[in-house]
Design goal:
The complex is a heterodimer of chains A (about 200) and B (about 110). By secondary structure, chain A is an all-alpha fold. Chain A has a domain at about 5-125. Helices cover about 55% and strands about 0% of the residues of chain A. Chain A contains eight helices and two strands; from the N terminus they run αααααββααα. Chain A has a two-stranded antiparallel sheet with strand order 1-2. In chain A, helix 1 (about 5-20) runs antiparallel to helix 5, helix 1 runs antiparallel to helix 6 and helix 2 (about 30-40) packs across helix 3 (about 55-65). The longest helix of chain A is centred in the middle third of the chain and has 23 residues, at about 85-105. Chain A is globular and about 50 Å long. Chain B has about 110 residues and is mostly helical. Chain B is built from six helices and no strands. In chain B, helix 3 runs antiparallel to helix 4. Chain B has helices spanning about 1-10, 15-20, 30-40, 50-60, 60-85, 90-100. At the A-B interface, helix 1, helix 5, helix 6 and helix 8 of A face helix 1, helix 3, helix 4 and helix 5 of B.
Chain lengths: ~200, ~110
């Protein structure tokens, strides 16, 4: 094992633990089912039937073609009974899983094993400062890379756990000559730009 | 930041090559990095072994691992931004034009 692989394994342990525990709008069992649905969609499998249709559909779209999502899709899921904040929690689960699975693949590892859920009820805590502000879902402040998950307690922390372990810390992001493990900032940003291009993402 | 980081080392960015997937974009080992990222993001079991070996021979194991991890992070970030509808910035619009891309209406600031 290298130090990098150790860091990745530790990240997986933390993220999988968060997936198993009751969330804000979903139980641990539902969160694991969302992760399973996302992986199934990526593998071309039909919906597993474990989740309400709107939850399953949102999970699958985020997993496989997030660039096609439009406000009308979110409105349809909300009209079907999904809270906007719950959509944000689905996004958090599926997007973080995509990072872990891609890293595992590229590092020559198996996909992280999904955990046994921990019993308990979702907290249903509402962030009262979150509101629609230049984006399609509630955020604390204007919709931005660092506010995307601010409609759910703990969302930003889970995002930045991945961001800082896999990419750069907030301080390093403003440094054009930052290096990590021998990768120059230009090489790091090329990997980022190419990934965005493949995902048809313009950021 | 890609352009700024290259500028720091006196090199020039050729953004269109990032999208077109051939030639050199100005980043050292750029072709090897691009091939490794493509294999990982597309989970290409056929291309991955060769791309991984080439990147590791050129860059070393830790650097190749870091490239993989960066791509993985953007698998998360891309989904967050697209699914939340974060409008793109003016600087991104300029780079997209240089890459030969058009920002869709729904992401215009």
């Amino acid at each position: 094992m290298t130090a990098l692989l150790d860091a990745f394994e530790a990240l997986v342990t933390r993220q999988v633990a968060a997936l198993a525990a009751p969330g804000v709008w979903f139980t641990g069992e539902e969160q694991v089912a969302i992760a399973r649905e996302a992986r199934g969609a990526r593998a071309g499998q039909p919906p597993a039937g474990e989740l309400p249709a709107a939850v399953a559909d949102a999970s699958r779209r985020i997993a496989t073609e997030a660039w096609t999502i439009r406000p009308a899709d979110i409105a349809a899921w909300v009209n079907a009974g999904l809270r906007a904040e719950a959509y944000v929690e689905i996004l958090s689960i599926v997007a973080r899983l995509a990072a872990l699975d891609t890293a595992a693949f590229g590092l020559g590892l198996n996909d992280p094993v999904l955990p046994e859920p921990i019993a308990g009820l979702p907290s249903q805590v509402v962030i009262t400062d979150a509101a629609i502000n230049q984006g399609w879902v509630p955020t604390v402040g204007a919709a931005h890379p660092v506010t995307a998950l601010t409609a759910i307690p703990g969302g930003l922390e889970l995002q930045f756990d991945i961001h800082e372990t896999l990419y750069l810390s907030i301080d390093e992001m403003s440094d054009p000559v930052a290096t990590r493990n021998g990768a120059t900032r230009a090489q790091i940003e090329l990997a980022a730009a190419r990934t965005s291009y493949l995902n048809e993402c313009f950021f | 930041m890609l352009r700024a980081s290259l500028h720091e080392t006196g090199q020039e960015l050729h953004p269109r090559v990032i999208a077109e997937g051939c030639g050199t974009c100005g980043v050292p080992a750029g072709n090897d990095i691009r091939a490794l990222v493509d294999a990982c993001v597309m989970r290409d079991f056929d291309e991955y072994p060769d791309a991984r070996v080439r990147a590791e021979l050129r860059l070393g194991r830790d650097t190749a691992d870091r490239i993989v991890m960066v791509a993985a992070n953007f698998e998360m970030m891309n989904r967050l931004l697209d699914a939340v509808g974060v409008p793109v910035s003016a600087t991104t619009t300029g780079l997209a034009t240089e890459m030969g891309l058009v920002i869709p209406d729904h992401l215009q600031p």
